[in-house]
Amino acid sequence: MTNKDARAFLEALDELEKEKGIEKESLLQAVEQALLTAYKKNYGDEENVEVVIDRENGDVKVYEVKKVVTEEDLYDAALEISLEEAKKISRRAKLGEEVRIEVDCESFRRNAIQNGKQIVIQKVREAERENIYDRFKAQEGEILTGIIRRIDERKNVFIEFGGIETILTAGEQCVSDRYKVGNRIKVYLVEVEKTNKFPKIVISRRHEGLLRKLFELEIPEISSGAIEIKAVAREAGSRAKVAVYSELPNIDIVGACIGQKRARIKNIVDELGGEKIDIVIWKENMEEFVSAVLSPAKVNSVELLEDGETARVLVDESQLSLAIGKSGQNARLAAKLTGMRVDIKVANAELED
């Protein structure tokens, strides 16, 4: 190790502190600890040893640390030193205190900076991972806007958010979306988890949270709290139902959600690739709520069965296909939105039974 190498090492730490926000002192302490572990591995750990990096010139030194005792009390020469011998090292040595004796280990010192560089690289990577985790964790449950950078052979879409690339997997994509490199895209940040490597960042275009957050962005009455979203049910790219409610008596809930000339709801529908959205007024009375949720079908009656989980719905035969929906979609969304099992029957057939 040369003085030039040592100073360059310190300068590199200064740059890291400025650019990455990683404290120079914390890196130096980490390097000292790692070098100490390496020293003990190579030279034995019988002695009490310290590895110190000079903060001014970067020089690496190794010290044996021994407790000063009397000649009569000297028991372990690896850990203790007599007062007489200690005085030869430091005139100020006193009984019960510690003295540091520099160890001549030039071969270890020569490789110390190179080893230190590897340790710093590792610590920088760890710090960057921690920063990425903290940054995205703070935005969990929110909408992120990024740029599509590439699409691989498995249809995974790689999206960049402020220099960090994350993956929109095929399973979290919406069937109505069309992904093109260079386009800006909104996604919902589902969750962020720490791992041994890069943080696991789950983003989605299918999640119901995306629809909920789009309503908050487009409809001021929702973001202000004047209107509350009670529930969301969604089959991404096809159809969704949103139950909304307000305690304010004079507010046009559906009108506020749709907007003048349907502008607000159109922005949401366009963002979701044409996904159809039904807005339903939430009702505390479950029979009334189930009836409203099955719109556009007209419901004759709703009965809650004794199990507390099933709503039996009667409709005219002409309304049955509307109530059930294409491939059962309307009924499925109604069940999801209400949290009930929705059993739809034709009224006349029910009477005959």
Can you give a write-up of this model?
By secondary structure, the protein is α+β, with helices and mostly antiparallel strands. It has helices at residues 3-20, 24-43, 83-89, 106-137, 208-218, 220-223, 253-258, 263-271, 286-293, 320-324, 329-338, 347-352; strands spanning 49-53, 60-69, 80-82, 98-102, 143-151, 157-161, 164-168, 184-193, 200-204, 228-235, 239-245, 276-281, 301-304, 310-315, 341-346. The protein contains 12 helices and 15 strands. Strands 7-6-5-8-9 form a 5-stranded antiparallel sheet. The protein is elongated, with a radius of gyration of 34 Å. The chain starts with a helix and ends with a helix. GO terms for molecular function: DNA-binding transcription factor activity; RNA binding. Monomer. Binds directly to the core enzyme of the DNA-dependent RNA polymerase and to nascent RNA. InterPro entries: KH_dom-like_a/b (IPR015946), KH_NusA_2nd (IPR058582), KH_sf_prok-type (IPR009019), NA-bd_OB-fold (IPR012340), NusA_N_sf (IPR036555), S1_domain (IPR003029), TF_NusA (IPR010213), TF_NusA_bacterial (IPR030842).
